[in-house]
From TrEMBL:
<dbReference type="Pfam" id="PF01148">
    <property type="entry name" value="CTP_transf_1"/>
</dbReference>
<feature type="region of interest" description="Disordered">
    <location>
        <begin position="1"/>
        <end position="63"/>
    </location>
</feature>
<comment type="pathway">
    <text>Lipid metabolism.</text>
</comment>
<keyword id="KW-0594">Phospholipid biosynthesis</keyword>
<comment type="pathway">
    <text>Phospholipid metabolism; CDP-diacylglycerol biosynthesis; CDP-diacylglycerol from sn-glycerol 3-phosphate: step 3/3.</text>
</comment>
<keyword id="KW-0812">Transmembrane</keyword>
<keyword id="KW-1133">Transmembrane helix</keyword>
<dbReference type="GO" id="GO:0004605">
    <property type="term" value="F:phosphatidate cytidylyltransferase activity"/>
</dbReference>
<feature type="transmembrane region" description="Helical">
    <location>
        <begin position="143"/>
        <end position="160"/>
    </location>
</feature>
<protein>
    <recommendedName>
        <fullName>Phosphatidate cytidylyltransferase</fullName>
        <ecNumber>2.7.7.41</ecNumber>
    </recommendedName>
</protein>
<dbReference type="GO" id="GO:0005886">
    <property type="term" value="C:plasma membrane"/>
</dbReference>
<keyword id="KW-0472">Membrane</keyword>
<dbReference type="GO" id="GO:0016024">
    <property type="term" value="P:CDP-diacylglycerol biosynthetic process"/>
</dbReference>
<keyword id="KW-0808">Transferase</keyword>
<keyword id="KW-1003">Cell membrane</keyword>
<keyword id="KW-0444">Lipid biosynthesis</keyword>
<keyword id="KW-1208">Phospholipid metabolism</keyword>
């Protein structure tokens, strides 16, 4: 996620520019009032040339979040994911299903709070979990069938309430079903291969490395905005960092972790991951900006909500799955 943490902007991971707006607000009313009471000759005093002027100290860049909490939570999640991934595949599928249900709860809650849209959570949660399991057990065909049944369940469930707002509620429900559980199903599809755990680990590593490269390079060198109307904190330099970091990591992962993989395939895979992860992060920022919120939730200290961590992972999963199938097959 290419960002410049010292320029927070409302609507993304570092998006909170409300503080800047206060410079012309009530915080300065006392100074204005005092200036009106002072005599005219004291309101604009002559500069004191004999007093040395001390230049303001340069401000340090700040990450904008509790880094210690963020690192602790990230390490804890990583341990749970890796342990379940390599010990029992079914446990990892359960972890993905739980993350999907929590993500759906966060998304539907914010839609109702900020827009008055009541996307039915019960059919979404049940259908979303079933979608992930069906993808693991029955493959892509099972995932599509589960998606269709979930959409139908959303349409029927909403019929139990008054017709006002029906169209926007079911539209949001179908969108949520596709955006969260259906995209997450491709993680389960990655797991079905013989070297499935290594494919999933490659997918996770490349996404994390892409985000880390964007953060590091954007924080240090970011000057040119990438998409200022969507997320002004993201920079072109950060995107370049994401591409470079992900391509190097992709070459290493495909060469040493994936059966029959080659380093040049990893370069292409890393490039695709950097692009999809960045677009996913921008898409999530667009949703949060439209809703007028900074984070989707507060479940993960230092990170926000589950959806704030899934933003770059969800659209990247189908990209990695497709390229893995093209490069080394699905078995």
């Amino acid at each position: 996620m290419p960002i410049v943490p010292d320029e927070p902007v409302f609507g993304g991971d570092q998006d909170d520019d409300r503080g800047a707006a206060r410079l012309s607000g009530p915080l300065f009313r006392d100074e204005t009032f005092q200036a009106r009471e002072l005599p005219a000759e004291t309101q604009n005093p002559e500069p004191m040339s004999d007093v040395p002027q001390t230049p303001p100290a340069p401000q340090k860049k700040s990450a904008g979040r509790d880094l210690s909490a963020a690192i602790g939570v990230g390490v804890g999640l990583g341990v749970v994911i890796v342990a379940s991934l390599f010990i029992v595949k079914a446990v990892f599928v359960g972890v993905v299903a739980i993350a999907v249900v929590v993500g759906l709860w966060e998304l539907t809650s914010r839609l109702q709070e900020r827009k008055g849209i009541k996307a039915p959570l019960v059919p979404l949660a049940v259908g979303g979990a079933a979608m992930v399991v069906a993808g693991y057990v029955r493959g892509a065909e099972g995932a599509w069938v589960a998606m269709a049944l979930t959409a139908l369940a959303v349409l029927v469930w909403r019929m139990t309430e008054p017709p006002e707002g029906y169209l926007k509620d079911v539209t949001a429900g179908v969108f949520a079903a596709f955006y969260v559980p259906f995209l997450a199903t491709f993680v389960a599809l990655l797991l079905t291969a013989d070297d499935g755990p290594w494919r999933v680990l490659t997918f996770l590593l490349l996404t994390v490395v892409s985000d880390t490269g964007a953060y590091a390079v954007g924080w240090r060198f970011g000057k040119h905005k990438l998409a200022p109307r969507i997320s002004p904190g993201k920079t072109r330099e950060g995107l370049l960092g994401a591409v470079l970091f992900a391509m190097v990591a992709g070459a290493l992962c495909m060469q040493f972790l994936i059966d029959d993989g080659a380093w040049w395939q990893g370069l292409l895979l890393g490039l695709a991951v950097a692009a999809s992860a960045t677009l996913g992060d921008l898409g999530e920022s667009m949703i949060k900006r439209d809703l007028g919120i900074k984070d989707m939730g507060t479940l993960l200290p230092g990170h926000g909500g589950i959806m704030d961590r899934l933003d770059s992972l969800l659209p990247t999963a189908p990209v990695v799955w497709l390229l893995m199938v093209v490069f080394v097959g699905s078995a």
